[in-house]
Amino acid sequence: xxxxxxxxxxxxxxxxxxxxxxxxxxxxxxxxxxxxxxxxxxxxxxxxxxxxxxxxxxxxxxxxxxxxxxxxxxxxxxxxxxxxxxxxxxxxxxxxxxxxxxxxxxxxxxxxxxxxxxxxxxxxxxxxxxxxxxxxxxxxxxxxxxxxxxxxxxxxxxxxxxxxxxxxxxxxxxxxxxxxxxxxxxxxxxxxxxxxxxxxxxxxxxxxxxxxxxxxxxxxxxxxxxxxxxxxxxxxxxxxxxxxxxxxxxxxxxxxxxxxxxxxxxxxxxxxxxxxxxxxxxxxxxxxxxxxxxxxxxxxxxxxxxxxxxxxxxxxxxxxxxxxxxxxxxxxxxxxxxxxxxxxxxx
Length: 347
Ligand code: SF4
Known about the structure:
single chain; alpha/beta; TIM Barrel; six-stranded parallel beta sheet; five-stranded parallel beta sheet; 13 strands; globular; binds iron/sulfur cluster
């Protein structure tokens, strides 16, 4: 499939047919598509700093940061700009080229914007690429962030439109699509994906990928998260998802969005090395690196380094044409251990 053939008209039947392929056929096809657009032995590496933690008014059932669930998470107010910049400096010294900042908000308030803008400008002045995830954005806010120098914005669709109401009631699917449209209109790169294993059915997984692939412009980055069941959230009791179904989801995402970085995101700690290797074979080519992923744990750096070595995988610097939000590339960090101070410790 060449770049000209990127499709935005996927139907549910077509997506379901991909999922229904024999496993080996599906992986072979995904690997073919992957090799047309990416080096199959390179994985991008992302880091993420929580700049405001917990006490979120939204009711996303999977999220320990929602104020509605008692998960024992320690709340943190918006970090001071200087502290954020200090972390960014450390990230740069450790080899990062991009710095992502996440805040547990429904949306940024007007009073927050000057601080946020200062953070973006400060991080930019350090010579780093910038990315943020702050909740819903108006067109005006998106323009302000773009003008401040924000390169990437993350906002996930989470699941299919049909299943969405089972997971979130405090904002609509259309709200999410509107934010993505505002980010695009402002000229920023889009990072958007979802979470599987939340009790959705197969059609919902197809529906999520259909929504993402059929956007007017496919996201530069597509994080596929496996639900991390945090005690105290309404989904903490759900049965584990069939691992091969997760690998299939990665493969189908790769086929439908051939030029996007497909990120193996939350849930990687529960995956053994073999499972992660299958995900890379299916076309995943980005991971989070570091021991904390906002508030849930992530494999430590050493185990990633070892796994990459075993698989002959190199980390990759961002590409001009298809980069992603949430990402600071740590190419050198495969050889050298990352500074602990870079990661927010929510434990
Ligand atoms: S996912 Fe984001 S919006 Fe939803 S509760 Fe968590 S922090 Fe809030």
